[in-house]
Amino acid sequence: MKLVNLAKVSRYFTLGQNRVCALKQIDLQVNKGEFLVLKGASGSGKSTLLNLIGAMDEVDEGEIAIAGKALGPMSDRQKSHVRRDHIGFIFQSFNLLPVLTALENVQYPLSLRTGGKAAGASSHKENKAKALAALERVGLADFVNHKPNQLSGGQMQRVAIARALVTEPDIILADEPTANLDSENAQSIMALMKQLNRQGITFIFATHHDYVLEQASRVIELRDGCILQDKQRVAA
């Protein structure tokens, strides 16, 4: 099943008086169950590509479809539904809500699905249990009531990972997801992601780390906004 389809996608940015091409005529298809890694030097287009696939940015040329749904004709509200229903995000900036605890941050996307404050007691209890389980899986069972300003950078990243995992989305987009973790926690998180991948969740990573590349079923190398190489591999 094809989850992601990019056809002749280009994205430009304006820097001063110059128009810079961040991505140029990208053709890319990602099937369900892939563990795909984007590699390339800084400025190669990895993060821009993740943002486009995640419906967080708009193309200047070409078309993108997620789970068979074309993003181009969609309103902002419709795109938010695509993100809610199909995509989990793990980015270096964390994007945690500072007024919420770790548990509430992880529970938040579940609450959006079930109606937030309007949800019944049963739904709220179920969402809380799922959020607690997700935090436990990333090693934060003892930090559920901590707010982001009470957590280290690595702990905030693990909260962000738990939040991405808790909805069990079709696709998880991850920009250097283990960058703020020590080697032991990084390996543990990668093992968890591989387990989820075997259960059917598709992963698209941008990374420089060899231990992430080693897990990939497919590696796409970007250079100057173009796909330099698209290689299938047998993950370790």
Structural summary, described in words:
The two termini are 24 Å apart. The protein has one domain: P-loop containing nucleotide triphosphate hydrolases (Rossmann fold). The protein is 35% helix and 29% strand. A 6-stranded mixed β-sheet has the order 6-7-8-3-9-10, sandwiched between helices. It has a 4-stranded antiparallel β-sheet with strand order 2-1-4-5, with helices on one face. With 236 residues, the protein is of the alpha/beta class. The model has no long low-confidence stretch (mean pLDDT 90). The chain is built from 7 helices and 10 strands. The chain is globular and about 50 Å long. A hairpin with a 2-residue loop joins β1 and β2. α3 (102-114) packs across α4, α3 (102-114) runs parallel beside α5 (153-166) and α4 (121-137) crosses α5.
Structure characteristics:
Rossmann fold; 236 residues; 29% strand; 10 strands; alpha/beta
